[in-house]
């Protein structure tokens, strides 16, 4: 979900406690970056359980999915559609002549961290993809998607599987997807789990398939939010994770038109890195 740069809690006491009891290497050596000390919280046993507890108390509504920022939905969707356009429709030049063909087909997409299905309904079905699978760990969101928010789409067959699982455990079917889209969810995964998640996603792609990522970016350091067990990563840290996972960054763009005071939101399109 979108977040304000000033909403993260002050974790000074907790960081001091962790510094006294743990010895974790915080270096991003290949980029010369240092993670903020409070990122050590990501390695704690309750990290994923606390995130589940947080989302269990969030209402299964658009406002709930967007952390109280429901008004950003139209501009978010517009930005995503414009960003992905060249990959699904190609690039046209003078006289509407197709200069660059589409990269991916519009057959099957996967919405990771789907919530009740906002991204599926408002973005992926407007591309449109013929069918979308959803992955969401909160049972109440899954139930809302199945019985109400996406009930018509399920009946029409434009929604396939609605999988109740955390992304740290999700195993995509091999070679199934034209696009795997991850939005405002990857901050819940630790760095190592995120690398492994991407590696599994690569195996879940069709030969020309792509992974789309849309996430908050911090300006410099890792910013950990203890309330929902999430981390906001700097742009270069995310790129480092892409590289570790065997992904090639094809396009990167900042979302425009969001309210002042929020973290920068960036979109990334990724393919398998060639050896």
> Helices and strands, in N-to-C order?
HEEHHHEEEHEHHEEHEEEHEE
What is the strand tally? 13
Q: Kindly, what is the distance between the CA atoms of the first and last residues, rounded to a whole number of angstroms? A: 34 Å
- Report the average pLDDT across residues: 90
Helix content: 25-40%
Derived structural class: alpha/beta
Integer-rounded radius of gyration? 19 Å
> Number of domains in the coordinates?
1
The proportion of residues in beta strands is: 25-35%
Major sheet details: 9 strands, mixed
The CATH topology comes to Rossmann fold
Q: Assembly type of the shown chains?
A: single chain
Number of helices: 9
Structural summary, described in words:
The protein is α/β, with parallel strands linked by helices and 275 residues long. It has one domain: Vaccinia Virus protein VP39 (Rossmann fold, 3-Layer(aba) Sandwich). Helices cover 32% and strands 26% of the residues. Strands 5, 6, 7, 8, 9, 10, 11, 12 and 13 form a 9-stranded mixed sheet that branches. Strands 1-2 form a two-stranded antiparallel ribbon. Helix 8 (191-204) crosses helix 9 (235-245). The radius of gyration is 19 Å and the shape is globular. 37% of the residues are buried. Mean pLDDT is 90; it is low at 8-33.
